[in-house]
């Protein structure tokens, strides 16, 4: 798969390919990226970070420095006890938790996320 912007190929990757460069914004980087062995599962982690932020208005991992953020991503767990988490549906919490699983082998895949998203099957 290739991602193209302005007629220039920016990224070319295969789903089976393991990457080893540390890239991306500190707040959205997956633990396996920091260990320099990752694939497309790292993108699902980033979606989990975005979902976390959209649901509660704060980042799942925070520190004053980039290295502190990296440490938190690898060692800390996001909190689901602070407001508004107690008022959110268990489906929404479980969805985010599956996206933010530190083990990429246990993390929800992009295809699973499309099927399991709490709002994906809702009809107006």
Q: Report the total helices.
A: 5
Q: What proportion strand?
A: 5-15%
Radius of gyration: 15 Å
What's the overall average pLDDT, rounded? 83
Largest sheet geometry: 2 strands, antiparallel
So what's the overall shape? flat
CATH architecture: Orthogonal Bundle
| CATH fold-level topology | Transferase(Phosphotransferase), domain 1
Spatial strand sequence of the major β-sheet: 1-2
For the termini, the CA-CA separation is 34 Å
GO molecular function, one term: ATP binding
Domain Protein kinase: 1-124
Pfam families: Pkinase
Keywords: ATP-binding, Kinase, Nucleotide-binding, Serine/threonine-protein kinase, Transferase
Description:
By secondary structure, the chain is mainly alpha-helical. It has a single domain (18-116), classed as Transferase(Phosphotransferase) domain 1 (Transferase(Phosphotransferase), domain 1). The protein contains five helices and two strands, in the order ββααααα. A two-stranded antiparallel ribbon has the order 1-2. The termini are far apart.
């Amino acid at each position: 798969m290739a991602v193209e912007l302005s007629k220039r190929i920016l990224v070319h990757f295969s789903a089976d390919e393991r990457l080893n460069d540390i890239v991306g914004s500190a707040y959205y980087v997956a633990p396996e990226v920091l260990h320099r062995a990752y694939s497309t599962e790292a993108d699902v982690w980033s979606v989990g970070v975005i979902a976390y932020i959209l649901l509660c208005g704060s980042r799942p991992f925070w520190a004053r420095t980039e290295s502190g953020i990296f440490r938190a991503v690898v060692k800390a767990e996001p909190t689901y006890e602070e407001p508004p988490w107690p008022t959110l549906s268990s489906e929404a919490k479980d969805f985010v938790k599956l996206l933010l699983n530190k083990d990429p082998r246990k993390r929800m895949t992009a295809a699973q996320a499309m099927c399991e998203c709490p709002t994906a099957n809702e009809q107006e």
